[in-house]
Amino acid sequence: MFACVSMFAGRLVSQASGETGRLDPEFSKLPFAQWLSEGDRASDISWSADILPAVISSHQRLMLRIVIRVAGSSLAKRRGAGEFVTLVQYTDGNKAVWQNHTSLDLATLAPGAETYQIAIAQYAFVLPGDYSLAIAVCDTATLEHSVIFRETHADPLKPDPLPEAWAGLPAVEFLPPITQPPDVWYLPGIDHRLNLGLNTRRNVHIQLLVNTTASDAGSLSAMQTNMSLMIPALKVLSQMDVRNGSIDVAFLDLTQRRVTFEQHGVRDPDWEKMRKLLLDVRPGLVDVKDLKSRTKMQEFFRDELLRRLVAADPQDGEAPVQIVIALSGPAFLHEQEAPGPLEKPGNTDRRLFYIRFQVKVVPVPGPRKRRGGTSPPPAALPADDLERAVEPFDAEVYEATSAARFREILAEMLTQISKF
Asked: Which of 61, 196, 273, 318 would bridge 125 by S-S if both were Cys, CB 3.0 to 4.6 A apart?
């Protein structure tokens, strides 16, 4: 059995060289520098640290994961005064130091803790490169401690469709102490922006639409799965630096056929307002009063796209190019009425991108795997109702099946939009 402890933030400081480092005040309360000079030190605290390879995250940052595991029996016998602290220090290739800690109150240790293992996660966004790690655990009441040293390397993406996206980012950025949705999807404590420059000759109006409706009517888990993929993508897309134009954001509730959130001229999405909406346990779920309108969800989505793709009359000069990027999970809607006639927008220089996020695949039926053979590859999900709704608009349709694939999609969209 495992229990988890989340991360605590320290403070960010700027070094004289211009490099940024992050010094955690908790380290100065302990003789950590002395411990470093003593080298590896064992104790009767039973613990281990796993350093997992850096992976590309849904926020399009390399994420390095350290998981510290502590035997519950080691904590149970220390129950009472003091805290059990874990300290992690990175030293990057430029000798900048980055620190973070977690803290567990031993006075409130749960009964029966000796029967399970506690896993303490320390996650950080990092740049490619080499890092020296010093990891320590300590009982603050007795100062009993143990320290280990490790070297790790974060490999760059090869190939990287967005090679300049991390320009200007800090070498290490610790993830905030968040484990619950919806904040864990957005990571409001992460403020650094990706470098996603977008230069166009013409003025462009980019609208980011998020379908908050779950494919499985009444399924909160399906909605949360979709949001865990789309909200990070929305945050990434909002960081596009549109030099000649603007970005709007909107949430669509298909069951109620309404726009539940809208923000114009976005640089930073209004997370507090979006958060309140997502904290409602019912976004996208079907109520009895919505049963009559649920047959028109596909038509509402199509008509909303049409409304946004139509070029507004310019007040002065040339009308902006209308760009709509629609984000959705799998949308297999039931008992949909055939949408009515559609009059396509007259502006042919519009662009619609439909991105469907999904991690599940449908196995291809076939013979059982033979010993020594290979299983047939999984098939992608079939076209859903919203994909059929975008067909009249000559949309670019993408399947975002992983963070790496979304990075490729993002690069393709930036290339296409930059041609205007």
From this structure: 61
Q: Which of 326, 302, 364, 304 is nearest to 226 (CA)?
A: 326
Cα–Cα distance between 30 and 85 in angstroms, integer? 10
pLDDT band at 282 (very low <50, low <70, confident <90, very high): low
CB 175 within 8 A of CB 7: yes
Using omega within 30 degrees of 0 as the cis cutoff, is the peptide bond preceding 177 cis? Answer: no
Q: Which residue has the tokens 């379908």?
A: 211
The residue among 90 and 112 whose pLDDT is bigger is 90
3-state helix, strand, coil in the chain (%, to 5): 25, 35, 45
Across the strands, what pairs with 123? 65
Distance of CA 360 to the CA centre of its chain: 18
Higher-confidence residue of 184 and 214: namely 184
CA 83, CA 248: separation in Å to the nearest integer?
47
CB 127 within 8 A of CB 166: yes
- Token look-up 């209308």 returns 322
Structural contact between residues 24 and 11, judged by C-beta atoms closer than 8 angstroms: yes
Phi, psi of 403 (to 5 degrees): -65, -35
> Rounded distance, CA 263 to CA 275, Å?
14
Cα gap 107→82, rounded to integer Å = 7
Six-digit token string for 419: 């041609």
Residue 41 is classified by DSSP as B
Q: 271-279 vs 220-237: helix axis angle to the nearest 10? A: 170
DSSP state at residue 239 = T
What region, left, alpha or beta, does residue 143 occupy, with left being phi > 0 and alpha being psi -120 to 50 degrees?
left
d(CA 237, CA 231): 10
Instruction: Report the alpha-carbon distance of residue 166 to residue 358 in Å, rounded.
Output: 25
Q: What is the C-alpha to C-alpha distance for residues 233 and 396, in angstroms, rounded to an integer? A: 17
Tokens of 259: 């726009």
- Provide mean pLDDT across the span 209-229: 82
CA atoms of 208 and 327, how far apart (whole Å): 8
**Cα 311 from Cα 39, distance rounded (Å):** 66
Q: Provide the CA 77 distance to its chain's centre, in angstroms.
A: 38
Give the tokens for residue 66: 């350290």
Number of Cβ within a 10 Å radius of residue 195 = 15
